[in-house]
Amino acid sequence: MFRNIARDLDDEMHVFTFNSLIPGEQIRILETCIAPGGFSAVALQRHPTAAIDGITLGMRDGGHSVHIPYGAHDSRVKIFFADVTMFATEFGVTPDNIPADHPDAATFDHTRPYEGRAYDLVICDGQVLRTHTRGKHREVGEATRLTNAQLILCLQRIKPGGTMVMLMHKMEAWDTVLLLRTLHKFSKITVFKPSKSHAIRSSFYIIAKNIRPYSAEAKAALKRFRSQWWQLTFGERPCRDEEGDMEGKVDEVVEEFGETLKELGRDVWRIQAEALEKAEFMRVDETS
C-alpha cells in the first residue's frame, strides 16, 4: 500500500523531482518514521544513487518491521531505531531541564540523529501505533506530540528549497488549519489524497515545497512547535509565540487563510465524500 501511495504522490505531485540539485550532487532523503519502508523503496527505484536516512521505533517497543535492505545489506539506507518523540535535546531541552519526577525522565534521548546533514526531501508519515509500549500519561495528545517532533526535525534538517511530505488527518480540524497556514508562510503548499487506500478516511498528505527554513516565519514556527512539544510532554509551559492570542481568533484566521484553505481542501473533501457515498456501510437496506 505505501509503495502505491508513494508512486501516486510522485506521479501527481513530483515529490521525488529535485530541480535545484547541483549537477552530480547526491540526493539526500530523511524519513522520520521509515518502517515499513515503502516511500524509501520507491525513492530508490526512481533515484538509485540517493542516500536515505531514517528513524523508526524499534520492534521490541512495538514498531513495524522494516521491509527494505539497510546498513550492511544496502549502504544507501541508514536507520536510527528510536522513539522520534523523545529526542529532548533536539527539541531544545537539556538534561538539566527535565523534571526529575517525570515518568520518562530516564528515557529521554539526548542524541541528535543525523546532525549536520541537510536533506532535499523529508518524509513525515508517522502515526501513533497501538502496539507502541508507552505509559498511560502519554495517551492524551500523543498524535500532536508526534506531529511536532517530526516538524522540529524537518525544519532543522531540510535544505533551503527542499520539500516536506507529511501525513495529516481532517483538513478542517483547527490544528490542521493552523499548521497549513503556518507552512504557507514559508513554503509553497499543496495537498494530496490517495483516491484508493485513503478514500473514505480523513487522512491526506501535505506537500510543502521550496521551504525557507532560515526565514523569520520558519524560525517562529520552529519555536512554536518546540513549545507545543514541551507543553504536551511536561505540561508546564504555555503554547505562546510571537502571534500571541491570534491563533485563538477564528475570524482572523478565516479572513487571512480561508480562501486558500477552501482551494486546498476542495479535492480532499470531494474524494472522501464520493467514496463515503459509495461505501457499503452507507447503503440503506430498503427491505428492512
Task: Give an account of the 3D structure.
It is a single chain. The chain has 288 residues and is of the alpha/beta class. The chain has helices spanning 2-13, 38-46, 142-155, 174-184, 216-234, 250-278, and strands at 28-31, 51-56, 77-81, 119-124, 158-169, 188-192, 203-209.
Mean pLDDT: 90
> How many helical stretches?
6
**Main sheet specs:** 7 strands, mixed
Number of strands: 7
The percentage helix is: 25-40%
Strands in their spatial order, largest beta sheet: 3-2-1-4-5-7-6
Computed Rg: 19 Å
Q: Tell me the number of structural domains.
A: 1
CATH level 1 name: Alpha Beta
Query: Low-confidence runs (pLDDT<50, min 5 residues)?
Result: 240-244
Distance between the termini: 37 Å
So what's the overall shape? Answer: globular
Q: Give the class from helix and strand content and strand pairing.
A: alpha/beta
What's the CATH architecture name? 3-Layer(aba) Sandwich
Could you say what the CATH topology is called? Rossmann fold
Taken as a percent bin, the fraction of beta residues is 15-25%
What is the string of SSEs from the N terminus onward? HEHEEEHEHEEHH
